[in-house]
Design brief:
Chains A, B: InterPro entries: HTH_MarR-typ, MarR/SlyA-like, WH-like_DNA-bd_sf, WH_DNA-bd_sf. The structure is a homodimer of 151-residue chains. Helix content of chain A is 68%, strand content 8%. Chain A has 151 residues and is mainly alpha-helical. The first copy, chain A, has a three-stranded antiparallel sheet with strand order 1-3-2. Chain A is globular. At the A-B interface, α1, α5 and α6 of A face α1, α5 and α6 of B. The structure holds a DNA duplex (23 and 23 nucleotides).
Chain lengths: 151, 151
DNA sequence: TATTGTTATACTCTATAACTATA
DNA sequence: TATAGTTATAGAGTATAACAATA
């Protein structure tokens, strides 16, 4: 009870965490979104593209689960990325209900070109924390996110 | 170099942090938004209402800065909350360009009634972390957010 | 001239529901 | 019957630009 934070209940702490989390992400996003926008992409498109870029081809629905949007919205996003020649649909031979989204050469080239800058910008933005602090936070955020998704 | 995380560069760590942050918040939001929706509010409206609830009346623009939306969008949000009788516009006598948003009795009553549940739900969602971990994370997120906003 | 807030407008994203095809 | 994805549709939220009132 001798300091402000210790006096808070678990509920208040969680609320505080949620608010602070929202603010922090909003602040980061504001900067990053301008950068992404300059590529002609929106945050969702970038998230999808980046996922395929780093994880390889994925069933469209699997992507939707990660990005947390409805399947019809995934169709919309994939359409847009396909029109921009950054990804391609590819049938799954084993299960013909499934369609993979796979990155094109142009998509790979784009991210190869942009990723270093993107990461550099993020480094600048996140420079408020030390390396150690980032590592701890990543670990904890993963725990938090995974738990939250299963509530 | 003896573990996966240690091998990452500062850039990659920051990228990872951003991704994990996004996922964690999305997961939490998904749960919270349903709850908020059941009040007939959207996340932005709730954020605005909550800010006035806890911080007292605020110039409309100040709110917009916190929530990070354009001033015309603030007009839209304030209109909606005012139609729902949860907040009220109030002129500023000293500077007649300024309009305060102030919470009504109905707004206060609503949040008084809902806040305990809201916090409880958040507690459940955030139960993946211990009290100590939450406190640390709040502190770090604040640092991160404040720094990011000034980049 | 700069700032606060509003109006008018257009557009992007997302969700819902109904559907097709495959399993 | 259940799952993956699409189509059609509608609506919500946000931004941009031009503006009015005030400082």
């Amino acid at each position: 009870m001798d300091d402000k934070i210790q006096a808070q209940t678990e509920e208040e702490l969680s609320l505080r965490l949620f608010i602070v989390l929202t603010r922090a992400l909003n602040a980061i996003k504001k900067s990053v979104e301008e950068e992404i926008k300059s590529l002609g992409l929106n945050p969702t498109e970038f998230a999808v593209l980046e996922m395929i870029y780093s994880k390889g081809e994925q069933p469209i629905q699997k992507i939707g689960e990660k990005v947390l949007i409805a399947s019809s919205s995934m169709t919309y996003v994939v359409d847009k990325l396909e029109k921009k020649k950054l990804i391609q649909r590819k049938a799954c031979p084993e299960d013909r209900r499934i369609t993979y989204a796979t990155i094109t050469q142009a998509g790979t080239d784009l991210l190869d070109a942009v990723f270093p800058e993107h990461k550099l910008a993020l480094k600048e933005i996140c420079a408020g924390l030390t390396t150690e602090e980032k590592k701890v936070m990543i670990k904890q955020l993963k725990k938090l996110g995974q738990y939250a998704q299963n509530v």
